[in-house]
Write a structure and sequence with these properties.
2 copies of one chain form a homodimer. By secondary structure, chain A is of the alpha+beta class. Among the domains of chain A are: 60 residues, Winged helix-like DNA-binding domain superfamily/Winged helix DNA-binding domain (Arc Repressor Mutant, subunit A); 76 residues, SH3 type barrels, CATH 2.30.30. Chain A has 8 helices and 8 strands, in the order αααββαααββαβββαβ. The model of chain A has no long low-confidence stretch (mean pLDDT 93). Chains A and B meet through α4, α5 and α6 of A and α4, α5 and α6 of B. Chain B binds a DNA duplex (30 and 30 nucleotides) through α3.
Chain lengths: 221, 221
Amino acid sequence: MNTLAEENYLKALYHLTVQAPEGAYTNDIAAYLQTKASSVTDMLKKLSSKKLVHYKKYQGVILSKKGKQKALQVIRKHRLWEYFLVEKLNFRWDEVHEIAEQLEHIQSDELINRIDKLLGFPKYDPHGDPIPDADGYFEEIPFLTLFAIPIGETVTVCGVIDSSVSFLKLIENIGLTIGTLIKVEEIFEFDHSLKIAIPSKKTKVLVSQQISKNVLVKIKK
Amino acid sequence: MNTLAEENYLKALYHLTVQAPEGAYTNDIAAYLQTKASSVTDMLKKLSSKKLVHYKKYQGVILSKKGKQKALQVIRKHRLWEYFLVEKLNFRWDEVHEIAEQLEHIQSDELINRIDKLLGFPKYDPHGDPIPDADGYFEEIPFLTLFAIPIGETVTVCGVIDSSVSFLKLIENIGLTIGTLIKVEEIFEFDHSLKIAIPSKKTKVLVSQQISKNVLVKIKK
DNA sequence: AATAATATTTAGATAAGTCTAAAAAATAAT
DNA sequence: ATTATTTTTTAGACTTATCTAAATATTATT
């Protein structure tokens, strides 16, 4: 069993190395966790002695197989709790992150598996991120960004790239929540903004390029 | 905000002093928390400096008003989470304590209030222990649950523990409304269900354990 | 009232996780 | 290739919560 601090480092390392197989750097980890580089070095030594990471001084760090598995279990718990908070307790999806940061450290396989069952074994969380199963397995869906959708196409919102509170508040406010069916009606050459129709709300909304590049969608088939 | 260790001491002090207004003793606290007397002394000093307890060297300790309030909030969370685990995730009562010991330290008033609402604002847990409300107020159970009544006894229904709509509909439907005189005719070992006679309606009804644990009764004198 | 037994506190140590400041290594620039 | 800059690590200190062992206070016994 790992401490809370260890779990947070494993999770951070997972997120920092998922798109960077060469490894994570001390300063980046420190920035990500809002701590100091020296603290990171200390923890990397500890995780290394526990065989959770492959670490050599000055050489960056990657998760070991064991470390990756542990990280995925924490991520699984985080995403399932977020789903629970939104689905069962009617939190908005921009409110759940901090609470899930605490709940993800509750130690009980049985508990999280029953939460999983209660929720109907969801594969994706409210942000559209995949939820690993009890063995750490998950499937990434090759979502497109709204930015890449041509005029006339109808798509379903299924996630976001930027999951900051400020962005979530924005899309909540304009009605682009997960599951919403939308249609791209126009693309303005001037600034690449889009006119989007939301049939369920009978509204239309103008969306900037910056927004459209952060909204993930699935093409309706 | 208090640390996990502080919360555990406050809770322990509450339980140790609820029936002993003169105060708790260092060794008793140490035995209760499975720690050493010297550790207790250290923590009592800390809690005292935070005005959470009234403590004088060698003189025992009692909770301050503030400390009692904090303790009750932890107890509230513990009992609500236990109720949740049993009610929504189908854990048995003997399985929930350890998980609730972790969940009780999650810091979010909004979360526990929504859990409270989800459960129908229960006033007592199925052990008959009262659940403090958001202000720390609670009523000691003056009744027994139907579950605890032996064969042959005649009792009056005087309340429920689960006050959710679904449960109220159920007991309304089978006739176990407040004021009803009932007699326990049989207890089936198989699933601890009861056969109840309702003389006023000249009917008999089979009541599951889950139901009997949520019906409060007063023994007829 | 003096001594024995018990309870409590203090002193000093340990472990986890963090920090600052200084040293060392790696990388970039001249 | 040497110097400058950046990055990373080390050394030492701090905090929280714990421990053991010794000291002190309280209570009980004679």
